[in-house]
Design brief:
By secondary structure, the chain is an alpha/beta fold. 49% of the residues lie in helices and 9% in strands.
Length: 358
């Protein structure tokens, strides 16, 4: 099942985590003071002010240039689909990957609108894919069925994380300064629910959602599948890599690497919905220094998402009842981030406008 032979060690992962610089509180305070001197009541722009403060703390620059944006879409299949937990067949995964590459998916439309690049990575699709724009870094040809055995080995999981890091490193060299997380993989809400149940302290019934729009019978089966997977594999809640390997997915592991890689490069990373947030939770468990680099985009309709966000300490910017994935919510929030920076740069201060603060 393994495809990539030249692996990475846990020491390689530790080296990346060691690269993450602590949040620059001094720069964040400078941004906050500037914001408070703009022609408005302090705090009246709400989360737009909070974004500006966070970006300053991440980059160490009062108003960073984040014009080069990219959404990294990690794609992988899941062996647990054998259990009938999705409304769509596994064949949809490669079909949608090609749709991304040909520019026809929702995330492509939103990325064009936000002037962001779409970077699509085959990290675990079960079938072979070829396209001039595809980045092929296949670790597994789909994960194993987690109700029968662990989804991945620990070695495969580390590889997938490090591939995510390497993708970000490459993009940063090409000038990208802000990232969004995206994914594609039929069955990945089941894997995400299993991870969430372990690491966010939920029951399977609380963590499992409707995913692609399953009926009541399939929903009940999905809860049972998650419970069976946890009972069989006994993932260690104190070891996020163990949890990810046993009940996760290659694309989720890749996104863990994207988040860690962004933090290691001093770049903000916008987290999409439930699956991406699962990766964010694992990244936060691996190093608490990653959390300040994350911007939560939207609240998914998946029922476990709010509790998952709270367990990381993140507050989503918008709630549009979305549950598509792909990175759509994260890319949509690029506009809010741009607006935040524009407001801080272009609004008059009380002094410059000759307006009294008293």
């Amino acid at each position: 099942m393994s495809v990539i032979e030249n692996g990475y060690s846990e020491n390689d992962l530790k080296s990346v985590l060691d690269r993450i610089v602590a949040f620059d509180e001094e720069s964040a305070i400078r941004a906050e003071r500037h914001s408070d001197n703009l022609t408005k009541p302090p705090g009246s722009l709400g989360k737009l002010e909070a974004i500006a403060r966070q970006l300053a703390g991440i980059t160490g620059v009062l108003w960073p240039d984040l014009s080069r944006k990219a959404v990294i879409i990690m794609a992988g299949d899941h062996g647990v689909c054998e259990e009938g937990i999705s409304a769509f067949p596994q064949a949809v995964t490669p079909q949608m990957v090609l749709n991304f590459l040909n520019g026809g998916a929702a995330v492509n439309v939103l990325a064009r609108h936000a002037n962001a690049d779409v970077v699509c990575v085959d990290i675990g699709v079960a079938s072979d894919l070829e396209h001039k724009s595809l980045i092929s870094r296949k670790v597994v040809r789909g994960t194993r069925n987690m109700v029968k055995e662990p989804a991945m080995t620990r070695e495969e999981t580390i590889k997938a994380i490090m591939i995510g890091v390497s993708i970000v490193d490459e993009q940063v060299k090409n000038g990208v300064r802000i990232f969004a997380t995206g994914e594609m993989g039929i069955g990945n809400t089941t894997a995400s629910a299993a991870i969430t149940a372990v690491l966010a302290g939920m029951s399977p019934a609380q963590a499992v959602g409707r995913g692609t729009g399953i009926n009541d019978e399939t929903f009940a089966r999905k809860i049972d599948v998650v419970q069976r997977a946890l009972t069989l594999n006994k993932p260690d809640q104190n070891d996020p890599i163990d949890v990810l390997a046993k009940v996760g997915g290659a694309e989720i592991a890749g996104l863990v690497g994207v988040i860690i890689g962004a933090a290691a490069n001093g770049c903000p990373v916008v987290i999409d919905g439930y699956i991406s947030s699962t990766a964010a939770l694992i990244a936060a468990k691996l190093s608490e220094r990653t959390s300040p680099y994350m911007i939560a985009s939207h609240l998914s309709q998946e029922q476990g998402h709010l509790g998952l966000m709270k367990s990381i300490g993140l507050s989503p910017l918008i709630q549009l009842e979305m549950r598509l994935g792909e990175g759509t919510g994260a890319v949509l929030c690029f506009h809010l981030i741009d607006a935040s920076l524009k407001l801080m740069q272009e609004m008059a201060t009380f002094d410059s406008a000759g307006i009294s603060k008293e």
